[in-house]
């Protein structure tokens, strides 16, 4: 997801509560959801997409 937003990598220990300011296309989000499908708890692809978007 960070690669799709084109943001630089950050140190998790030093920076907390990071707000992301990028935007990605729907095609990028769907491709990420297909890759994350195996680790998701959602039943359908639409649920996985909602998990990624945070809704």
Characterization of this structure:
- The chain has 3 helices and no strands.
- The chain has 55 residues and is mostly helical.
- The protein has a domain of 32 residues.
- The longest helix is centred in the middle third of the chain and has 11 residues.
- The protein starts with a helix and ends with a helix.
- The model has no long low-confidence stretch (mean pLDDT 74).
- One of its GO terms (molecular function) is structural constituent of ribosome.
- One of its GO terms (cellular component) is cytosolic large ribosomal subunit.
Keywords for this structure?
55 residues; globular; 3 helices; mainly alpha
Task: Estimate the helix proportion, in percent.
Answer: 40-55%
Pairing-aware structural class of the strands and helices? mainly alpha
Poorly predicted runs are none
- Cα distance, first to last residue? 15 Å
State which percent range the strand residues make up.
under 5%
Shape: globular
Query: What is the number of beta strands?
Result: 0
